[in-house]
Amino acid sequence: MTFSTGSLDQIELTMNRKITIFDEDWMRRARASAPERSLVNGVIAASNTIGGVYLTTLRSWFDGFPLSLKQKQALAARIESFIDEDHLGAVNELSCWEFLRREQFNANPIPTAISPTPDFEVVSPYQFFVEVSTLNISERDKSKLEAGQAVELDHSETLRRVLGKLTTEKQKQLSYAADRKRPAVLVLFDYTFWGGLATTFYQDLADFLLGERCGFRGLPGQLSALVYVDRGVCKGRIAISRLRSAAYYSPCAEYPLPLGTFPSLNQFSVGAAVEAPALTNGLIWL
Questions:
Q1: What distance in Å separates the CA atoms of residue 195 and residue 187, rounded to the nearest whole number?
Q2: pLDDT bucket at 27, cuts 50 / 70 / 90
């Protein structure tokens, strides 16, 4: 096969091409078009302070994320979206990637395909697949807030929505792991109204999944573990609450993971609970 000088120049240009997110053009569009109540609008309003730190962090993570140019274009479209759900979904994938790296896992992003696939494959020190999901604020709570009404603290409703993720939305991603005879982990970021506040939902989730009712029995056997993430932004930096996040290991998994796979978080399995190591401020900075 031979190449002309022009085609070689084009190949070199393509290989050296870099996608830049949150550039000046995006900033102008965001100022003009981002919905008033959107997360992006709040970030833009504080772009000279904590909003700028937030955007700089995401740029750095995006630049180092090992995907092809085509895959990065799709990710860029989601992370630059003015729709909160789309933006946060992309941010959480990058946050999970940074968390896995921080925890010394050797992991690779899985390019999106026609059929649903998990987001990451972890190859050491354990071998398993990771699917990232977001529990957004419910439409009911959103409507109440917009009407100026109070929102009740209802852990049972949050639990119902978590189970919906596990039994319907993520079944194909879990099956992908099982077809390859590997454990599957769902990492769930909580953005409900009460997420990020000092609640004990992580303990209620442990009681349901691993208590007398053993809620894991009613969940797909392909699910090896659930990692519940209480995540927040502090002065523009993204962090995970070590105190209110947890990993739950299923006793019914076809391909189980051992207690201790996620040592930085609270951990629960049948008959065993391990508290996360103490930190001064209880946060894992990403």
A1: 15
A2: very high
Contacts of 226 (CB under 8 A, 6+ apart): 162, 166, 185, 186, 188, 205, 209, 247, 248, 250
Give which of 141, 137, 105 is closest to 122, Cα–Cα: 105
Q: Name the nearest CA neighbour of 125 among 277, 261, 268.
A: 261
For 188-224, how does the pLDDT look when each residue is reduced to its tens digit (9 = 90+)? Answer: 998 875 555 556 788 888 988 998 888 898 889 999 9
Question: pLDDT, tens digit, for every residue of 102-115?
Answer: 999 999 999 888 88
CA nearest to 183, candidates 109, 98, 238, 257: 257
Which tokens sit at 87? 């933006």
Residue type, 217: R
